[in-house]
Amino acid sequence: MISKARRVFMIQSIGVCASLAIAQGAKADTPLVDENDAAAKGLGYHAQASTVDAAHTPKYQAGLKCANCRFFKGASNEASGACPMFPGKNVSAEGWCNVYAKRV
């Protein structure tokens, strides 16, 4: 006979797995930030860091991109991820904006 504690553990584990599966599905449906969006323009967001004009954006340096920013919430192998600067949208891992802060 299965103990009560073991039964509770199994039920909670199923709940956690279901929550993770739902979260992954929701993440895949999150739209990317459009460079023409008002918030994106305000923060100087570029979907490709290589397109940033360093002459007009002195804070930018080659090699800086969303993937190595402390605010980027995507995994290292993902093409995009969440960023608190753009709630409800994902940013490109290869992107860059003026809020960039090196991940430590």
UniProtKB/TrEMBL annotation:
<protein>
    <recommendedName>
        <fullName>High-potential iron-sulfur protein</fullName>
    </recommendedName>
</protein>
<comment type="subunit">
    <text>Homodimer.</text>
</comment>
<keyword id="KW-0004">4Fe-4S</keyword>
<keyword id="KW-0479">Metal-binding</keyword>
<keyword id="KW-0411">Iron-sulfur</keyword>
<comment type="similarity">
    <text>Belongs to the high-potential iron-sulfur protein (HiPIP) family.</text>
</comment>
<keyword id="KW-0249">Electron transport</keyword>
<comment type="function">
    <text>Specific class of high-redox-potential 4Fe-4S ferredoxins. Functions in anaerobic electron transport in most purple and in some other photosynthetic bacteria and in at least one genus (Paracoccus) of halophilic, denitrifying bacteria.</text>
</comment>
<keyword id="KW-0732">Signal</keyword>
<keyword id="KW-0813">Transport</keyword>
<dbReference type="InterPro" id="IPR000170">
    <property type="entry name" value="High_potential_FeS_prot"/>
</dbReference>
<dbReference type="Pfam" id="PF01355">
    <property type="entry name" value="HIPIP"/>
</dbReference>
<keyword id="KW-0408">Iron</keyword>
<feature type="signal peptide">
    <location>
        <begin position="1"/>
        <end position="28"/>
    </location>
</feature>
<feature type="domain" description="High potential iron-sulfur proteins family profile">
    <location>
        <begin position="27"/>
        <end position="104"/>
    </location>
</feature>
<dbReference type="InterPro" id="IPR036369">
    <property type="entry name" value="HIPIP_sf"/>
</dbReference>
